[in-house]
Amino acid sequence: MGVIRVKEPEKEKIKEEKEKKEGKKVEKAEKPKLVVRVANTDLDGNKQLAYALTGIKGIGYMMAKAICIASGLDPRRKLNTLSNEEIELLEKVIRSPQDYGVPSFLLNRRKDLETGKDLHFVGSELEIATKFDIQRQIELKTYRGWRHMLGQPVRGQRTRSHFRQRGRVVGVMKKAVKAKEEKKEVSK
User: Fold this and answer.
1) Phi, psi dihedrals of residue 94, rounded to the nearest 5°
2) pTM of the model
3) Tens digits of per-residue pLDDT, 135-151?
4) Which end of the chain lies in a sparser environment, N or C, as judged by fewer CB atoms within 10 Å?
5) Under CATH, what is the fold of the domain 35-106?
């Protein structure tokens, strides 16, 4: 005679059947969510709240911690343990962090050109705003606009070894390659 091992899902079914027979009210516990949707972004539910929020475009680690503190949530808490009300509160704080006491130096768009206010963009809003900023620089024909237009590095990087198109190399040629080129020129 051996021991019969019952798998976890089968144990739960057996337990539920016993409770039904006894007339007890059966309540199923919510399964932890693997993917949680916050601010139109799918986030890993197994990560801690502060690290999971960094998956949203426009939110870094410091901003994520400030959002957690402003919403009154523990940054070390797992994202999948949040209730729907807490997720809604989190989204409100993400949309307008300055209203909840997040300092302005953490916002990603301070002194906006159009409004003059400190704003914080996330997700597609941030992508659209940066595209419009680049387009404005191109139209004004600033140095940065020209660099964007030509596909060159904008922030002062060197172009000798990087940013090459189509595999061209600038620099010293090897002797063998140089000798072949000279022979071709002489034979012509």
Assistant:
1) -65, -40
2) 0.66
3) 999 999 999 999 999 88
4) N
5) Helicase, Ruva Protein; domain 3 (1.10.8)
